[in-house]
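Notes to self, DNA repair protein RadC:
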Amino acid sequence: MTVMVRDLPADERPREKLLTYGASSLGNAELLAILLRTGTQQASVLHIAEEVLARYRDRGIVELVNMAPQELAEIKGVGLAKAATVVAAIELGRRLSMKAAEHVEAVHGPEDAARYAIPRLRHEQREHFVAMLLDRRNHILAMRDVSIGSQSASVVHPREVFRLAIQHSAASLIVLHNHPSGDPTPSQEDVAVTQRLVDAGKIMDIPVLDHIVLGGDKFISLKEEGMVQ
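result:
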């Protein structure tokens, strides 16, 4: 027998819990159930929300960011209207996180650079190798894609990085890239690419201050790890 949300005690229903205890008190399925609003005669809205999350369990709820409404609508009990609501809510959240990152005005260390870049790169399914271009006071002039690679590698040449630096009159730069796997551990290729860029920066008199590898909400600074000279 399927338990419907209306059969739950009032303080266990997702909407009522949110209003009483706040959104942070709800699990992912409960939050998603509020967006879906209603279930079917055969399944409660909580059950449908759990089905949606189970569909993407390999990468977790983050995978919803990459889902088109039509794909979500294929799940029984969702439909296009509900799928559009979910996708709209996720996009609002993504924009809010990117807006918060804009408050990073100057980079004083890898934490600042990562905080600026993570909202832009955490959901990408391919590697994006980017250059964060800084002025003499370490204010961010721009962050630009250098290359977009496969799920396992980015192809980077120093000329592309320093062409961007010259275009923006950058005094220095930080390079970053994401690992779609969520594991920010640098590869040997990452270390080799970084050293080539650091050496080129010395010749160009545009220092490469760091290479930061992002994985989900985590990051590793190659400079802090002593992986480059």
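- Helices lie at 14-21, 28-36, 45-55, 69-73, 79-101, 110-121, 158-167, 188-204.
- The mean pLDDT is 87.
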